[in-house]
Each structure stands twice: as C-alpha cells, then as structure tokens.
Amino acid sequence: MDLVALLRKETIAARRNLGLVIVLLVLLPGALAGGTVVFEQTIPQDVPVGIVAEDDASENDVAIVRAGLASFATAEEYETNDEAIRALQREQIYLVIRVPGTLMDEDANATVTVVSDHAFVPFQEPIDETVGVAESELDRTFPATVSVAHEQVDEPRTLSEFLVPTGLFAFVVLYALVYLPYQVRSERLVLDRLQTESSLDAVVASKLLFYGAVLAVPAGVVAAVTAWLGYDVAALSPSTLAVLGVTFGYLAAIGLAVLFVSGLAKTALFANLGLALGVVALSSLVYPVGFFSTTQRSISRALPTHYSAIATRSTMLRDAPAALYADYLLWLAATLVAAIVVLKLSLVVYRRRR
C-alpha cells in the first residue's frame, strides 16, 4: 500500500472511533485550557480568614482590621477564639486574626495576633511574608504602635509530610476513576457469561468491595515508607482507611457509571481520565481555597472531593477527633449513597441496550 492508501485507512479507522477521537483531541484539550480560568493569580487575594475581637476591642477596631485584610482575604468574624481555632483546623478558614482593644490608643503598644495551622504547610511561607507587610500597614493605620505576633497550632510539619496525604488522595482518585473502570472494561467479553451465573449488580458490587479492600495495600506501603523516612503520618489509622474507603467508593461508582452508560466504550476511559484530572486540579489539594480566585474557591467548596482531601489530611496529620469534621464525613457518606444510585441506574441503561 502506498502512503495515500495508508492515510486513507487511518482516516477510516479514526471515523470508526469518532467518539474517542472527539474526547481525546477536542474535549480533553478544551477542558484543560478552559480549566485555567479559575487560576487568576499566584498571590492570595480571596483566602478565608477568621477575626476574633478580644475583650476590649470595639466594632470599629474590627471593621478597620477587616478592611485592611480585604486586599488578600475574605474575613469572617467569630465570637470566641476556640470557635475560630476549630474552623482553622477544619480548613474553613486558614488564618485567625485576634484584634486587641488598644489600637486607637496612641500611647499603647498593641499586638495583633495571627494564628495559623502547622498542618497546612504550603501557606506558611506566604503567611511569614504577609506578617511583615501587615505589621507596617496596621502601624500606619492605627494611632497605637502596632506589632504582629504569629502563633501556630498543631504539631510542626514539613512540606514532605504534608504532601503524603495529598499524594495518597491523588492516587485514590486515579485508582477509582481510571484503573477500576479500565479493569472492568478489560473483562467486557466475559461479562455476559458472568451474568448467566450471577447478576450484573453482584459482579459490580464484588469489584467495588474487592478493590476497595485492596486499598489497604498502598496505604500500608505509604505507612512503611513514611515510617522509614521518619515522618509522623497516620496512614493506617482506622479513620484514615475509612475516609479513603468512602472516597474510593463514590469515585469508583461514578467512574463505573460513566463506563456502563457508554456501553463499555473506550471513550469512557478518557472521559474518566479527564474527570480525574479535574478533581485533582479543582479540589484545592495543596493551596487554600480562594488562593487563586473566587471562582476556584466556589468550585472547591462544592466538590465532595475537597472535603475528602481535608478529612484525609486531618486523619493523617492532625491529632484531632473525628467529631471535629463529622459533618464532612456525613456529606461524603451521602455522596457515596447518591453515587451508588447513579451506578445502579447506569446498569439498568446498559442492560436495556444489550
């Protein structure tokens, strides 16, 4: 065959797999390019922070400090320091600002206290840089001589330790959305035979249970490697395994639903890959929500994977009770139930098309 004939053959083959070609060459690049719109800056401009008025602080003091934070943060006032610290550990906010009541006294030395969480390592350097700027700005704004003190809660962590739960979470996303659907599709030729011996629902359920249980193996590997490196990371704690299991469950159910709705087409694998990339990019795994843009903050807060990432980080790095983020766990459990319902409906669609 000459070159023209070979090119014609490739064109016919591409036309035969038009759905796959569109997903791979049009939708994925378009999604990757379009997804960049939520990353608008590299300097934080909309990070959620909490403000706590100390006993003698006035509403005017708080309002002026809030205005001073407007250039890089969205401030929310808390009644007590304990409430603010709780929100800090739940990653509802990323800083706590304690406002003293002597800011308007020109003879006073006032100390504004900034509290951050050791566990959220990537935000520490921006905070250190911001403290110096904030001190000069506040000192210029208020009559008092203002200094800024920086306090931190939880145990000190390195960036390497912080990235362990982040990496493990990203692995679970790819494992659930890409590997498991690929594995199921590779058995498509024997699915009909399996259905004569058992129901399709039972076959799919067995795969979810088996591959969910197998997650203990990579978690164990991570635990062994981090122990060897001297990291204090609870990769095998029951709460960590529970969060990873629930996260795998709802992501795998969604990935399999996409696969069965497509009729086990190869296109579904690329669609799931795009979904996995979107989850990793938009769930605020490394930087605070609002660090890049208001849009990114809104998207992250709407995704269950964002709360899975927080819960995973909390169980592995923070010495905090599960009650601290119990509402997150309930939200994840509800997501799992909804995903299983969607998977069930996709199996109905698949059977009707057979």
From TrEMBL:
<keyword id="KW-0472">Membrane</keyword>
<feature type="domain" description="ABC-2 type transporter transmembrane">
    <location>
        <begin position="24"/>
        <end position="341"/>
    </location>
</feature>
<keyword id="KW-1133">Transmembrane helix</keyword>
<feature type="transmembrane region" description="Helical">
    <location>
        <begin position="241"/>
        <end position="261"/>
    </location>
</feature>
<keyword id="KW-0812">Transmembrane</keyword>
<dbReference type="InterPro" id="IPR013525">
    <property type="entry name" value="ABC2_TM"/>
</dbReference>
<dbReference type="Pfam" id="PF12698">
    <property type="entry name" value="ABC2_membrane_3"/>
</dbReference>
<dbReference type="GO" id="GO:0016020">
    <property type="term" value="C:membrane"/>
</dbReference>
<dbReference type="InterPro" id="IPR051328">
    <property type="entry name" value="T7SS_ABC-Transporter"/>
</dbReference>
<protein>
    <submittedName>
        <fullName>ABC transporter permease</fullName>
    </submittedName>
</protein>
<feature type="transmembrane region" description="Helical">
    <location>
        <begin position="162"/>
        <end position="182"/>
    </location>
</feature>
<feature type="transmembrane region" description="Helical">
    <location>
        <begin position="208"/>
        <end position="229"/>
    </location>
</feature>
<feature type="transmembrane region" description="Helical">
    <location>
        <begin position="268"/>
        <end position="287"/>
    </location>
</feature>
<feature type="transmembrane region" description="Helical">
    <location>
        <begin position="328"/>
        <end position="350"/>
    </location>
</feature>
